[in-house]
Amino acid sequence: MLKIDTLSIRQGDRLALSRALTLIETNTSESHNLQSALFPFTGHAHLIGITGAPGTGKSTLVNQLAKTFRTSNFENPAPKVAIIAVDPSSPFTGGALLGDRVRMGDLSGDKGIFIRSMASRGALGGLAHRTAAFVTLLDAAGFDLILIETVGAGQAEVDIANLAHTVLVVEAPG
After folding, report:
1. Nearest of 28, 50, 5, 3 to residue 133 by alpha carbon
2. Is 47 strand, coil or helix?
3. Contacts of 130 (CB under 8 A, 6+ apart)
4. pLDDT (tens digit, 9 = 90+) per residue, 118-149?
5. Helix (H) or strand (E) holding 170
6. How far is Cα 4 from Cα 21, in angstroms, rounded to an integer?
């Protein structure tokens, strides 16, 4: 069983954070203990949800928002930004299709940005079952802004409104 150091997560160790997020996806008792240990260090990040129908430009907007937050001189130092991209599940592996993450490739060189895709795995509402748990870890890891991109959403996929502080709805032109 993988032992993850909560201090490493809180100090922003990317490897520890990645391993912890993978552990959270498994939803084991160890993952519950990890969330409980990190919960007292949460409540500082601002959560921004981005939702809308498939193909409306959610990933493009997330990409531009992250770049703007990191490069604008409105805050010194620039805020640390985490992105959770909820993708449709692969019919073959059950994992995330990673389409959203591919469109955010120009963010990869910025050490102040952390991107994680997660598969919806059939969850309704536009989010994956473990999205809120991901937010807990990213908040405890010291990210100032957490951008949560929902899987392509329609009229019934509104779970992001219960999770995020700010929700942006992207609509297609016309």
Report:
1. 28
2. strand
3. 24, 25, 27, 118
4. 877 667 667 888 899 999 999 999 999 999 99
5. strand 166-170
6. 10
